[in-house]
Amino acid sequence: MFKKSISAEWLKLRNSRIWLVLITLPVISILLGSINYYFNQGVLQNEWYSLWTQVSLFYGEFFLPILIAICCAYICRLEHMNKNWNIVMTSPVPIRSVFTTKLIIIAILIFIIQIFFLILYFIVGKILGLSSQIPSETIGWILRGWFASLSISAIQLRLSIQIKSFAAPIGISLCCVFIGLGMYIMEFGMFFPYSLLSIGMGVLSQEGLTIVENIQFFVMNILFTILFSSFAIYRLKTADI
């Protein structure tokens, strides 16, 4: 049953236009960041690290949270049309599986986006003539960014299930991005999911996390994911959507 649910969700996306959005926003992030890097090489002299500061700022701080919100809104779009939630809620699939399946599909999409972004980063770096080896930390930034996206996905999926509007959850995500930036600046980033994404991807600081900070990072993301997933599942079970 669970495999069939995954297949059904994936089937909805296979021929959809969301892939165009998933490709376009990382490309725009890379273009903006690499152009900024190219015209400021006199100041940005740390090659791959400097390039990362430019491309990840646009991508990790703004575009990725928006992409997550778009994925969550889109994956709930069909259910909101023609009152299809009634069919979903009366099907023999457990409520927990309905939410978990959607969250897994979003996690897969974000992982694909992360790998795509990494490939673009490497290609652009070579085009710009960076001769040194790509930093090993890059893999950690990509993976931690993906892990942090899970807690944001749980929040946005919860919003997209409750809110019929496609644009409203995306707007909320954008507001949370700016709140997260403020929390990061005030050094409370570990306690807000959208700030955890910035920390995980090394958007504003490429200094490696200590062992304690790494543990805290993963624990907080797990807690946020479980908390908001549990709340969303409880809401599905008890509320009329």
UniProtKB/TrEMBL annotation:
Pfam families: ABC2_membrane_4. The chain crosses the membrane at residues 20-39, 51-76, 103-124, 139-159, 166-186, 215-234. Signal peptide: none annotated. Keywords: Membrane, Transmembrane, Transmembrane helix. It comes from the Bacteria. This is ABC-2 type transport system permease protein. It comes from Paramaledivibacter caminithermalis (strain DSM 15212 / CIP 107654 / DViRD3).
